[in-house]
Design a protein that fits this description.
Elements (H helix, E strand, L loop, with lengths): L5 H22 L7 H12 L1 E5 L6 H15 L2 E7 L5 H11 L4 E3 L14 E6 H4 L19 H10 L3 E6 L10 H11 L3 E6 L5 H9 L6 E4 L2 H6 L6 E8 L11 H22 L7 E5 L3 H13 L7 E4 L8 H4 L7 E4 L12 E6 L6 H12 L3 H4 L10 E6 L5 H13 L3 E2 L15 E4 L5 E4 L4 H23 L31 E4 L10 E7 L6 H8 L4 H6 L4 E10 L4 E2 L3 E6 L2 H14 L8 H19 L7 H14 L2 H12 L2 E8 L3 E4 L20 H11 L6 E6 L10 E3 L3 E3 L3 E5 L8 E7 L8 H7 L1 E2 L3 E2 L1 E6 L3 E8 L4 E7 L4 H4 L1
Parallel strand pairs: 1-6, 1-7, 2-4, 2-5, 3-4, 5-6, 8-13, 9-11, 9-12, 10-11, 12-13, 28-31
Antiparallel strand pairs: 7-14, 8-19, 15-16, 17-23, 18-22, 19-20, 19-21, 24-27, 25-26, 27-28, 29-30, 31-32, 32-33
């Protein structure tokens, strides 16, 4: 039998005093016409109690002791309601082992009224008694030898028994369960209700209180620190999160496998540490899978890492382990793989480490996960000199975003403060002479309890509020106090208007030849007609150096593991770890990179792949790596290069294509432009107007050019796409690029005094076009300046970051920068 800790005994005594007082008050009632109303009033104010404490502090134990003490001093039977079937047997076992005055009864087979005795406990789930489906609630049907559960409660109460309800894990019990509410309120109608939760101020419990007219809910709250000080709970939970700096490689990392291997290593380190301390505990590693397919992967990874198959168990709804509860004490088992069931109530104090591959960010779910590894094994509870590492639980998340669920759970648990509800003074029950009576339409007398002055005052206040709300509803949600219903006979004072159709006009804007340096025509780049040797050039320029060849042997990448203690939010030092690569993802992305190289349709992908594989095979042969010359090995190696060294092929194609590009004169710029609407005047535009096809940020940039007060901008031209007189630059794999603006810049030595500028709404995109544009160069006008309107306040230049393989903001744009760019 477990001896209660000091804080547990204090909580039990406080809870017992409150509920014992409720039953005493009921026993002292006069059995008159007002008995039912007076009894209900007492129950509403004194008969409901909630234990709030983190998982592992002994809520089940404390509730059982309260029920036992009440059963000894009062004539009571209990129904113990659990949210999940998986913990029923565990609860029954605890009751049988720990409480001599409580007697576990089978809700299906032991419903005889004659055999009832104080302390009978029916352990079941909500779903087995509160469902509309009769097959799911057979205990509520009469048989030849037993009454239904409904009749049993009535008969027990008629025999002088009080009914008590214990709602375990109450934060799981009432979500959307109308039948549960009705069963509790109308069928059980308990005198005493004891609930427990690991979630402070839970919204579902609050809804339950409101729905059942509970006027006062006594709370016994136990903080996490109480559990730590008593040796029941670990000091904290350390969470390992995996971060990769190179965003492009993120999808290549097998985070599931990486998290599992990290968890397995920690599990083995703890195992060795326990042996070193002479503690005979085999720690348990819990692994939460996402799917059945994921479970098979986990089994395979564990075997590859040297974990014997006999030491691994699986428990899911599809593959239940009939001996689940025995796993908690079966120290031949080192790993338990599960999906959901174990996350809700499985009690295994020897569990130190948990790996989760689920993607839930729900704090309620986080509380369940934390609860599985918060407990301290009894063999460690009495030891004060254990290493610090054994005072913590360890969680490894394959999805970093899931951290929010655990952090939210830790914050909720930290909100639980030590608190004992005081014993409520005897409720003043007004005798019959102090009650108001009224008759309904059938002549039946109803008794109504009179209210205290405070309650009456509150009722008046509420009535005023209702009246105020009625006024709002009457005159509309956004009505003001002085508004009145409109007199519908009053006619509108707004005069009717007629609109004349405007005649069509054309506005003509000629080329402004007064602006210095405006060319008659611009230069455009285009690919040569003869592209027959382009493929060979790409293959020849595809550099297979030592760095590239080493990538073909790579099976993992280096990533960072962040270590955070979630209750204190303290960060430990980051660690560099090797993360396994997703071979399937590499294969798919390797193929995708080849297809992406031919978006403009100038290459034969099949021919390019075969030529690159032949070149790679020759390099393997030259190095004497004959084990790599098999066709499949060569292709796998090529895909690794294309994915892990993605710029290698891009660089070769860019350089080869540049050799096949020539500069030609575009068609002459139009001598004038026309518009159906009058356009605003522009200071430096070559047509002295702001074109009507400028979007918001393009117009803002055009006005920035016109605002030049340093005499740098000589002229600017809106470069329209797909016009024969426009500037274009072919970009391999991305088609033709038409920069937004062509700008004449005073004293610019490059580009014949002309700068190409492109404005971006987003500096990066999934297709990689923004990166491709910033890396390109015009044969005559040189590098294109990319600019971004930051916060619609200032213009910033954009530059390419090769480490991140993406664009980033560089510096504030000023007019003189255009001269040197």
């Amino acid at each position: 039998m477990i001896i209660l800790k000091t804080f547990q005994q204090t909580a039990v005594n406080s809870a017992y005093s409150i509920l014992h007082s409720c039953l005493d008050d009921i026993a002292n009632l006069h059995k008159g016409a007002a008995y039912r109303a007076e009894k209900e009033y007492i129950i509403q104010h004194k008969g409901n109690l909630l234990f709030e404490s983190p998982t592992g502090t002994g809520k089940t134990l404390m509730m059982g002791h309260v029920a036992e003490k009440l059963s000894i001093n009062h004539k009571m039977i209990w129904i113990w309601l659990a949210p999940f079937g998986g913990i029923i047997e565990q609860t029954r076992k605890v009751i049988k082992q720990e409480f001599k005055a409580l007697y576990v009864s089978d809700v299906k087979t032991e419903r005889s009224v004659a055999n009832l005795r104080s302390g009978n406990v029916y352990v079941t789930t909500w779903s087995s008694v509160a469902m509309t489906n009769a097959d799911s609630r057979k205990s509520r049907q009469d048989t030849e030898t037993m009454p239904s559960l409904d009749i049993l409660f009535d008969a027990a109460r008629a025999s002088g028994f009080s009914i008590g309800v214990i709602i375990d894990e109450a934060h799981h019990s009432f979500r959307g369960q109308t039948q549960a509410y009705q069963f509790y309120k109308n069928i059980i109608a308990p005198e005493i209700t004891i609930m427990s939760t690991a979630t402070p101020r839970d919204a579902d419990i609050e809804a339950f209180v409101r729905s059942n007219d509970i006027k006062h809910l006594s709370r016994i709250t136990v903080s996490r620190q109480q559990g730590i000080d008593a040796g029941l709970l670990k000091k904290g939970i350390k969470v390992g999160l995996f971060r990769i700096s190179h965003e492009n490689a993120k999808s290549l990392v097998d985070f599931d496998k990486t998290a599992l291997l990290a968890g397995l290593q920690t599990h083995r380190d703890l195992h060795d540490l326990l042996k070193k301390e002479g503690v005979t505990i085999t720690p348990l590693l819990l692994v939460q899978a996402r799917s059945n397919e994921n479970i098979e992967d986990i089994r395979q990874w564990l075997q590859q890492a040297g974990m014997a198959e006999s030491k691994v168990r699986v428990h899911t709804a599809d593959e239940p382990d009939p001996h689940l509860m025995s796993i908690a004490i079966d120290e031949e088992v080192e790993v338990l793989i599960f999906k959901m069931a174990v996350a809700t109530g499985f009690d295994a104090p020897r569990a130190f480490t948990l790996v989760s591959m689920r993607t839930s960010r729900d704090p309620d779910f986080g509380i369940q996960i934390i609860g599985r590894i918060m407990r301290v094994d009894r063999r460690l509870q009495s030891k004060n000199d254990i290493p610090e590492a054994l005072r913590y639980g360890y969680v490894f998340l394959s999805d970093k975003e899931t951290q929010s669920g655990l952090t939210g759970a830790a914050q909720r648990i930290n909100l639980i403060r030590d608190e004992l509800s005081p014993v409520t003074k005897n409720v003043n029950v007004i005798p019959l002479s102090g009650m108001v009576t009224k008759q309904d339409s059938n002549g039946q007398v109803q008794f109504v309890l009179t209210q205290s002055r405070e309650e009456q005052s509150e009722a008046v206040s509420n009535t005023d509020e209702i009246k105020s709300n009625d006024t709002i509803q009457r005159f509309g949600l956004f009505s003001f106090e002085d508004e009145r219903p409109l007199d519908q006979t009053v006619k509108s004072s707004v005069p009717s208007q007629t609109y004349a159709r405007k005649e069509t006009a054309t506005y003509t804007y000629p080329l402004n030849t007064a602006l210095a340096g405006v060319p008659k025509r611009l230069k455009r780049a285009q690919t040569k007609l003869d592209m027959s040797d382009l493929l060979d050039d790409i293959v020849n320029l595809f550099d297979i150096n030592d760095e590239v060849i080493n990538i073909t042997q790579q099976s993992a990448v280096s990533i960072v593991r962040e270590n955070i203690e979630i209750f204190t939010n303290r960060r430990g030092p980051d660690e560099s770890v090797q993360a396994a690569l997703l071979q399937k993802e590499i294969y798919q992305r390797g193929q995708a990179s080849l297809f992406a190289a031919n978006k403009d349709g100038t290459l034969s992908i099949k021919s390019l792949q075969l030529k690159l594989e032949e070149k790679l095979k020759q390099e393997f042969t030259r190095r004497g790596w004959m084990h790599m010359t098999d066709k499949d090995k060569v292709r796998e190696a090529l895909y690794k290069i294309l994915v892990l060294k993605s710029n290698q092929l891009h660089k070769a194609i860019k350089e080869a294509t540049f050799r096949h590009i020539e500069s030609v004169d575009a068609e002459p710029l139009p001598e004038f432009v026309e518009s159906m609407d009058e356009l605003d005047y522009s200071r430096y535009n070559i047509y002295s107007i702001y074109p009507d096809d400028l979007n918001t940020w393009e117009l803002a940039f055009a006005k920035w050019l016109d605002a030049d007060d340093q005499d740098v901008v000589r002229w600017w031209h809106r470069n329209p796409p797909r016009k024969p007189y426009s500037v274009l630059i072919p970009i391999p794999g991305h088609g033709n690029f038409y920069p937004d603006f062509v700008v004449g810049v005073k004293d610019r030595t490059r580009g014949n005094g002309i700068l190409l500028i492109d404005t971006k709404e987003r500096i990066n995109d999934e297709e990689g076009q923004a990166v491709a544009k910033i890396e390109t160069e015009h044969m005559d006008y040189k590098k294109v300046m990319i600019v971004y309107w930051e916060n619609k306040e200032r213009w910033m230049t954009v530059e390419y970051n090769p480490t991140q393989n993406k664009n980033q903001l560089d510096r504030i744009l000023n007019y003189s920068l255009m001269q040197s760019y």
